Amino acid sequence: MNLTPWIITGITVTVVYFLDVWENKYIKSIFDWVPAILLVYLIPAAVSYVLGLDFSQEKIHDYSKDFFIPLAIVTVMGSLSLGQLKAIGYKPIVLFVAGSFFIALFPIIFVMGFSETTLVAETLSMNGFWKGIPPIVGSWIGGSTSQLVLKELVECPEAIFLSVLVMDNILVNVWTILMFQGIKNSNRLNLWFKITDKGIPEEIREEKQKPMAVWITVVILLAVVFVTNYFVESFVGKVVLLSIVGLALGNFVPRWNFKFSLKAGAILILVVMAILGLKLRFDTLGFDVSFFGFLVVWLFGHFIFMVLIAKLMNINMAWVPIASMANVGGIATAPAVTAAYEKKWMPHAIVLAILSMATGTFWGMLTIYFLKVTVGS
Hints:
Blueprint: H1 4-21, H2 25-33, H3 36-51, H4 60-77, H5 82-88, H6 90-113, H7 118-126, H8 133-142, H9 144-154, H10 158-184, H11 186-192, H12 214-231, H13 235-252, H14 258-277, H15 289-313, H16 319-328, H17 333-339, H18 346-374
Helix pairs in contact: 1-3, 1-14, 3-14, 4-9, 4-12, 4-13, 4-14, 5-18, 6-8, 6-15, 6-16, 6-18, 8-9, 8-10, 8-18, 9-18, 10-16, 10-17, 12-13, 15-16, 16-17, 16-18, 17-18
């Protein structure tokens, strides 16, 4: 077995992880614009390019699909607490789900309505950019885990996937800035839309019991993956089963270690992305302006749709940027944006972001099904 790709992956993940958690303002400013998930994908590709080596056919990719990705799924799903979700209240959750619904189904409606345009007929269909849409859905709703799973499910080419990552990174950074400004003006929007319900959600109580030992948690997670691999051959089947099992672990196993589960999932995502980077070839990279414009329309449409839903439900407009960041941003940016309005709501934003991580893959699978019917073959 060739150890070189394993060494490159290990060093890349270790360096990027520790740089990401390093409390240095200059390093932090870099990661604000080039997130760890993108950097860990580019470094192995750059090393391969400099060394003139091709690792695209190495066995490490099989290990990633059969072991690392399934392990990432079950750990992320195991971090969702249904008890904490209940404390948020139904209105913010309905608003969040509405945002996810728009993200997952807008591309389908757009393709059906503008099938004769150059964007749909050539860029999405002929040039295959439609395979970049499900990873975007996964990124916006579920985060990196869903993005990776959907990339495998739709068999998105590496060149298109890198283009999607770059465009997604640009949009999410800009969107985060806009949501920071948007949530500060929530009270004005409440007056403008005549919102009267500004109720405070129930406080989320932290689990006071001592969590399960890390080694026991690891043994359980590994056992689940090995048993699933033994009995289930279909990758889609593994995704569904591991998602259900992970959710069950997080909510029915006493003293489940939510904190470790979430942290382990984050590290596993970096590992999978680093391995994917070994397949990337820079000479195939392209940036399609029309596709980027489509993403901009898609993202702003998502926000406008959520504003309308918030008005219909008479819910505080602050929940719109919170739910949007839980969808598009994730577990780091959602509470940060929330803190600009009400720090007491930060735990609720985190729970919504975890809900996003848990459901993104399924929304993306729905998107894949309809896209294959309308665009793909």
